[in-house]
Design goal:
- It is built from 1 helix and 3 strands.
- It has about 80 residues and is mostly beta strands.
- It has a 3-stranded antiparallel sheet, with helices on one face.
- β2 and β3 form a beta hairpin.
């Protein structure tokens, strides 16, 4: 099922996508899996990607604030 920005599915889960620039980065799946373990703490997650900044994953935690993870992309020999 593909959702358009702002649409909701039958589980009332909103998915919003906003793209300002093309991004072509690689990340270690090992660390993304670790970040995913925090999903039980929040109903909302924000993922920010940019060619000029590390990946940012933010979980909003009601009444406590937020939990934010940063991950630098993999660097290949071509980029060094």
């Amino acid at each position: 099922m593909k959702l358009e920005p702002g649409e909701t599915d039958s589980r009332d889960t909103a998915v919003v996508l906003k793209c300002d620039e093309k991004v072509n980065l690689s990340f270690a799946l090992r660390y993304l899996n670790m970040f995913n373990k925090a999903n039980s703490l929040s109903d909302k997650v924000q993922v920010h990607l940019s060619n000029e900044a590390p990946l940012t994953v933010t979980y909003e935690i009601n009444d406590y604030g937020h939990l934010k993870f940063y991950l630098a992309p993999k660097i290949t020999e071509d980029e060094e």
